[in-house]
Design goal:
This protein is α/β, with parallel strands linked by helices. It is about 30% helix and about 20% strand. It is globular, with a radius of gyration of 24 Å. The structure holds fe (ii) ion (FE2) (2 copies).
């Protein structure tokens, strides 16, 4: 029996709400049916099979810093029976997606072996049944065959199955979380698994309880919580109200760094939040801004690109109801490696999504946001859904470049002619980067030589590349960010630098060089606030 005094209750600020897909942490490639299918067969099932056959190898590997982020499950060699059950359930319940994954591989093989420059019409008869009607076969101008997926249709087919979705509720007490791309979230005594689709309004209602209290009698029935978990669910609420948010009221601008590539800019009565990835609030020695440090209404959320550390569903879903407009880069329309961010956000319940493309401008009352080309950092794959943004706020100009890699300085010469100088430059310098297969491997249907893979990395700017932009745009402030160093992001980043790691030495060099020339420069870590004069 749960006793309650009838006082209104708030959701505690450290209630962790993890979106899951068949118990795997949801990230952007697990939403579109086609990329989900490939990740289920080529990532999840392979890791589960490997764990079942040699759990102790995984237990050893996760302790080895050199193997950080590798395909090793973090359960200390235990819980093998549960992983077996998850594997069996996945094979049974997701048979159609397993078929889709095979069909994508088969279609690729078919095109490579039979499409030699002649009409592709006869090949339609050989498209595997599960894919029929969802793809168009094409050549490029060099007669290399390929296909495009008609994404809006595939989301409206039985292949997009919301029953895979759930959320896990628990109380976060520290930054310590396993790497989610390799470890599924098995049930535990202190976690409540709630079988709701991500688009459910009940999730917005739950999150709204962080700032608007309601009586327990109104809260308890909104989500399908089982009776045996209701006592635990009650402990996720408190009577204490959160501290109220104080929006920036000046006539200039204020920006705050929330960690990694997450920056909030407030100016002219509007708020712009880039690449939201937020920590929960709990006792810690490392100060940070959290969910509680956001305005009630976020006018614009802007996404730079579709990597799991920049499109973080765990954060996005918790902000959904307070976002005015979400700005995303337009995708290449139908390529397996470039799913539409707009469609996948729509599928999980977002509206007011605006797609932008290179050099498009969004007017705001005291300036504008200009979308700029974002080169590189995608292993030379044809991925279009990536943008840097120039924010013009009054007389201030801030260039938010995320992981853009200056592999072609001539591009920035052209861009400079279009937009002129920049005051503050935010640049990611993760210049080593993971090899292509780390992220895109499951999408490949043919093996790639190791040396090729190693040569095509998800790498951001090094010193030479970054300093070229600093000089060309006559930047007066330089902020290295998006380095994956905040410990509360270990579950999606798996990065640990030392003082001799290239991202650190190259960014140190940039900072020292800038400072020697009177340019304000620093590498952001944890939290930071800068006020800009009117
Ligand atoms: Fe990236
Ligand atoms: Fe990144």
């Amino acid at each position: 029996m749960i006793t309650t005094n009838g006082h209104p209750l708030y959701l505690r600020p450290n209630v962790q709400i993890e979106p899951l897909i068949d118990l795997w942490y949801a990230w952007a490639h697990l939403i579109p049916p086609h990329t989900a299918a490939r990740n289920i067969t080529e990532r999840h099932l392979k890791i589960m099979e490997s764990y079942i056959s040699a759990p102790e190898v995984h237990a050893t590997a996760v302790k080895n810093p050199k193997l950080l982020g590798g395909p090793f499950m973090d359960y200390g060699g235990k819980r093998v029976d549960e992983i077996k059950a998850l594997r069996d359930r996945t094979k049974k319940d997701r048979a159609q997606l397993l078929e889709l994954s095979s069909a994508l591989a088969a279609l690729n093989t078919l095109l490579l072996s039979q499409a030699k420059g002649f009409s592709l019409q006869p090949a339609y008869a050989q498209i595997p049944p599960v894919l029929k009607g969802y793809v168009e076969l094409v050549y490029d101008l060099n007669n290399f065959p390929g296909f495009r997926i008609i994404e809006p249709l595939i989301y409206r087919s039985p292949l997009y199955d919301q029953s895979m979705q759930s959320v896990a509720l628990s109380l976060a007490a520290s930054d310590d979380r396993p790497f989610v791309l390799s470890t599924p979230r098995l049930p535990s005594d202190d976690t409540i698994d709630v079988p709701v689709p991500f688009a459910a309004e009940a999730l917005d209602q739950l999150v709204a309880l962080k700032t608007t209290a309601a009586p327990w009698t109104a809260i308890r029935d909104r989500l399908p919580i089982s009776d045996d978990r209701m006592q635990l669910f009650r402990t996720f609420f408190q009577e204490e109200a959160p501290k109220p948010y104080e929006p920036y009221a000046g006539s200039g601008a204020r920006w705050r760094y929330f960690g990694h590539a997450c920056i909030l800019i407030e100016t002219g009565g509007l708020s712009f939040l880039f690449d939201p990835v937020l920590s929960y609030s709990y006792e810690t020695t490392l100060p940070r801004y959290t969910y509680e440090d956001l305005p009630d209404r976020i006018d614009y959320v802007l996404i730079t690109h579709n990597h799991q550390d920049h499109v973080l569903f765990e954060t996005l879903l918790q902000l959904r109801a307070r976002i005015g407009t979400i700005v995303v880069p337009r995708s290449g329309a139908g390529q397996l490696q470039d799913p539409s961010i707009k469609l996948l956000l729509e599928a999980v319940g977002f509206d007011s999504i605006v797609e932008m493309t290179e050099l498009e401008e969004l007017k705001t009352p005291n300036g504008s946001v200009v979308a700029l080309p974002f080169l590189g950092e995608h292993s030379d794959l044809d991925v279009r859904s990536k943008l840097a943004y120039l924010v013009r706020a009054g007389r201030h100009r801030l260039l938010v470049a995320a992981d853009s890699c200056n592999i072609e300085p001539a591009l920035y010469a052209h861009v400079h002619r279009q937009i002129g100088d920049v005051d503050a430059f935010f640049v990611g310098m993760e210049c080593d980067g993971a090899p292509m297969t780390w992220l895109y491997g499951p999408l490949l249907t043919r093996r790639i030589e190791r040396q090729m893979d190693e040569s095509r990395r998800l790498a951001g700017c090094n010193y030479d590349q970054a300093v070229d932009i600093v000089n060309r745009f006559h930047c007066r402030e330089v902020y290295v960010y998006a380095m994956g160093q905040e410990p509360w992001l270990n579950h999606v980043m798996s990065l640990k630098y030392t003082e001799t790691s290239r991202p650190i030495t190259e960014s140190n060099r940039l900072i020292a060089d800038c400072r020697s020339r009177g340019i304000c420069a620093e590498r952001l870590f944890g939290e930071r606030e800068i006020l800009l004069d009117p």
